[in-house]
## 1
Amino acid sequence: MAIVTSTEMFKKAYEGGYAIGAFNVNNMEIIQGITEGAKMENAPVILQVSAGARKYAKHVYLMKMIEAAVQDTDLPIVVHLDHGPDFETCKSCIDGGFSSVMIDGSHLPFEENIAQTKRVVEYAHDHGVVVEAELGRLAGVEDDVKVSAEDSSYTQPDEVEEFVSRTGCDSLAIAIGTSHGAYKFKGEPKLRFDILEEVGRRLPGFPIVLHGASSVIPEYVDMINEFGGKMPGAQGVPEDMLRKAATMAVCKINIDSDLRLAFTGLVRKHFAEHPDHFDPRQYLTDARTGIRDMVRHKIVDVLGCNGKA
Ligand code: G3H
Ligand code: 13P
Ligand code: ZN
């Protein structure tokens, strides 16, 4: 098996009423934990790399480790640029072997978002790479950019057909009330399923992407707080809402914060229980195993893509 695009995966996911997990990767243990979990559940998987991840780990290291994961697991794996900020970053990832890129023009006016997305689509399609675009704007923190709730905006369904047909993008991220990070809702979690439904009606068969989809699993938040951390009021998207979205037009569900929480909680727990340890292989084994188990849970209980590789 080689690195693949998401085209076939999304087609099957749409028809089958499930979604593919898109997990953010920043180091070897995260890549191994995710792909070991996917292997155990025989699930297709998207490994996504942000601009910040490329800066932290370097493109070539992440690429080579993902190639190793493909060789090791023999699974269909997509390598995707998450929140590509501009044409140049997308081009660099396309030239550097990614099979999918996101161009995030969600902060731009409609026409500028279209122009930028179209430029990326032309270059990507010439190189056999698929493109995710975004309409509407999520709240929360990505890299160092914080989008306040007031500056966030729901996707307007009456814009999606024109946007997709004029840009030629292969999938579309929409804003229905999720947000990035570990603090998604104050009070009752609420997602605009009516917007998702209307977008699905206007774009039949077209894959929709849900960002900001970590559930902020209480077990890991509690673990962090029990072992010396401080995460008051963290709250994510309830898993039954994600499950529902996966049965609708959503084919890709983005998860990063849950990986960070599991990793951090388990490292904190390890040190609390073994204050004398100083070998990174000991505490990183706990983190990697925890990520593997959390990813298995997402695949089976939330995404429904187990057995679909
Ligand atoms: O949506 C953003 C992802 O969680 C990536 O975060 O830019 O800090 O790597 P990052
Ligand atoms: P979370 O912060 O909810 O994990 O969202 C991740 C994401 O959308 C990556 O693009
Ligand atoms: Zn995102």
Note: Residues 24, 50, 52-53, 82-83, 142-143, 180, 256 surround glyceraldehyde-3-phosphate (ligand 1) (CB under 6 Å).
## 2
Amino acid sequence: MAEIISSRAKDIEPSITLSLNTKANDLKEKGEDVIGLTAGEPDFDTPEIIKKAAYEAIGSGKTKYTPAAGIAPLRKIVAEVYTGRLGIPYEMRDVVISHGAKHSIYNALYTLIDPGDEVMILSPYWTSYPEMVKLVGGVPRIVELSGETGYKLTPERLEQELGRGKPRVLLFNSPSNPSSIVYRREELEPIARILLKEGISLISDEIYEFLTFSGWEHFSPVTLVPELKDQSVVISGVSKGYAMTGWRLGFALASREVAYRMAAFQAHATGCPNSISQWAAIEAITNGAEDRERMRVEFEKRKEMFGARLEKIDSISYPEPGGGFYYLVDVSSYYEKCGVGGSAEFCEKLLEEVGLVLIPGGAFGCDSMVRFSFAAGEDDLNSALDRFESFLARHPG
Ligand code: PMP
Ligand code: GLU
């Protein structure tokens, strides 16, 4: 048969985070004794007030197409709230609502780069970034960061990388998935200044903005260097903060011209975002702070509990989570002892021997590591660590 798949499509692999999450859930449904700390999503139910707003939207017939960029009241409230949060002015027309932050990132990439342009991605990176760049014909330029700088980009490293050629865009994420690191103001501001000076566009993925832990504060690069606004797209959404991952609702704040093109692209590619989710998102953003904080506090408790046990395990290392809900743990000192060649094999063996599903670091460009999500109940977290410890004990080397 003639080859019918395009070479571009052949270059794209499924999302490992999504497929392993599905696999863990399938195994559990089949009654297998499996624990998965795979999910990059709050395990809490969507708060009642938000669900109620959605029921009301359905009841009052808000079930039709909306404007492609989203309904005016939602765009307005996002503009207002983020003008306050970011400390720089955004108007309704600078806001584009999409089917999740993932979709907003894709729209932004499509709008900001031409085929062949380089997009700088910091490793460990969220697994979808390089694939999304390839989907729009761009070239991912992976900058590998190490534990020596706390897995953070430094101004020196950025200058050094720019010496090798300028990317069109930096795709940036703080708090970060998978490392849960958060950039401090003094770390971020010089980076933002370099981007401004060099005219490099910025996509700032701030989807974990509300999930920071004690001692850490989220800053957007555009807050620290407001002149960067016109070359930046700031992205967030309701998935993580309000436990609304399945509602598919994210948004982008950009300059008027960029927002206009992003909306035009979306109008043809996917049409408007889900109407009901948009009405629910208004409720989340307007009245959801209390529920959001309740969940954040719970995540912080779990982070502490999980960290207190992890720190007792020999020969592993990890950055201390400042935000998000992941521990990204270097387990490479166990590879030889376990007879595995990398993170994928390590995770396969973990599943086979003790029924624990984690995400291999290879999915994030860091094969020495594995990702634990602590967006799970305390019993599951404890049981996962029991299994992890017993697995390591079975392979003393
Ligand atoms: N960015 C990062 C870093 C994420 O971890 C996720 C999680 N899916 C997203 C974006 C996408 O969020 P959403 O569910 O709103 O598409
Ligand atoms: N972002 C989450 C994760 O990393 C959800 C899955 C996905 O969209 O990749 O697990």
Note: The domain at 48-288 is CATH 3.40.640.10 (Aspartate Aminotransferase; domain 2).
